[in-house]
Amino acid sequence: MLIEPRLNEIKERLLKMAEIVENMIDNSIKAIIEHNPEYLKYVEENENIVDQMEVENESLIITTMARYQPEAKYLRMLAMDLFVNRDLERIGDHAENIKEHAQSILTKPKLKEYVDLPKMTELTIQMVKDAIKAFAENDTNLARDVIKRDDIIDALEDQIIRELYTYMVEDPSTIKVGLRLIDVVKNIERVADIATNLAEEVIYMKEGKMLRHQELDENGK
User: Fold this and answer.
1) Strand ranges for the chain from DSSP E
2) Are 3 and 124 in contact (CB under 8 A)?
3) Are 202 and 138 in contact (CB under 8 A)?
């Protein structure tokens, strides 16, 4: 029996799962930015679907390993599929966390017009998209580019949190919302970390180089 059709099926399932969790993050943040709880419905409708997909995908991957007893290159692909499946489910969890914070935030007046939060979210979602594209296309150059963007997200996180602390110091009535927003920002930063981890796994599976906890050199290698 040929293993390629099964590998293609697994990849298509993971790409679909990625699209859902990306939209979950996007909608959870839009609810806060636009102060509109309607966006949270998408997260609520899909959180159980993502959990079920994670279970089904894992079962399919492990069954494929057992049934086909694949050679080394296919085994590495399946191992990567397991990493991606796990990490996509974690992104879904962060979307759920943001949704829960948003539900509390939306009970209070809008703190401010958000500028850096949508920027941080957009950049983070693009990191996830590109990490998944790097995975789908075995593109280590794109994976390295994703890794380099993580510093931008960290800088935005620091900037937003400093601004929120300023609001809370100047007006203690904003503390509850401010603390919730800080948790939201930290969840977005963790999603960027997951995208970075995915990119690192792509490089490891393709080149055998483990970049986790290491810096890229000046040439991005």
Assistant:
1) none
2) no
3) yes
- DSSP-derived letter for residue 37 is G
Residues 171-188: tens digit of each pLDDT? 999 999 999 999 999 999
Backbone φ and ψ for 203, nearest 5 degrees, come out as: -65, -40
Which tokens sit at 133?
């594209």
CA terminus-to-terminus distance, the chain: 38
Give the residue among 56, 60, 58, 48 at the shortest CA–CA distance from 24.
48
Positive or negative torsion for Cα 84, 17, 196, 29? negative
pLDDT tens, residue by residue, 75-95: 989 999 999 999 999 999 999
Which residues have a Cβ under 8 Å from the Cβ of 212 and sit 6 or more positions away? Answer: 197, 200
Determine the Cα–Cα distance for residues 211 and 140; give it in Å rounded to an integer.
12
Cα gap 150→153, rounded to integer Å: 5
